[in-house]
Amino acid sequence: MDALAALRLQIEWGADEALDETPRARLVARAQVQPVAAEVAPEVQPRSLAPAARPALVQPAPVQPAPVQRAPVQRAQDLAAAARDVDALRAALASFDGCALSATATNLVFADGNPASGLMLIGEGPGAEEDRAGKPFVGPSGQLLARMLASIGLDRSNYLITNLIPWRPPGNRNPTDSEVQLCLPFLLRHIALVRPKRLVLIGALSSRALLGGTAGITKLRGKWASAVIPGLPGPIPALPVLHPAYLLRSPGAKREAWADLLLLRRTLDGK
Ligand code: URA
Known about the structure:
This protein is α/β, with parallel strands linked by helices. Helices cover about 40% and strands about 10% of the residues.
């Protein structure tokens, strides 16, 4: 029973997959383990209560103030701004330890497709398959998205695809607001470096992150909006669309999704 309860708890916490044959404490491996006083000075511990046997007290070394850490959002902004090209941005993101999601994810999921296509699709965050493969939209919802885009003649040579959050949130939970704030500078820089002509915002999270406001995706979808990206001379046309994961759960919404695809196709054709 105990083992079953422990397994249930693990699943609730998002450990819903076996990645290795043997367990590995990956968080411990990453932590900067500080030696504790008892380990460095065992000989100063009194061995007997007899006063004569007690060793002299050792003065503890003065505590050094920890180096001032720039707030993680500021560090994310600085790292992203310093990236001069997409490869540098990817490396900066891979080195960024300010977002706890990077510690629980298997892989960084950066982007896939054609950066020179002029069209950039932005989803929410990787799921289990994307986390394993290190590529966006390769799982069930990604396959549905690929079929939908193929129906208007688009494959990954016609667009670049990425996510607002580049690491899988455990158990596919929604990212928190602070996780979004930590990842957004990298996405904004990615857009500024790639300079796409148009954006497609897949789902509510990426739509709100790039357009602002709190409107739901059913309000936002179906019409082009404008995304203001720091570092670019003008706003970029952005089309919010329903997320394919939502379409898998609510197939009745495919009618709206189809209307959005046709709108995208007409715009790409200049009609
Ligand atoms: N859902 C997303 O938003 N992004 C992915 O990469 C996969 C599923």
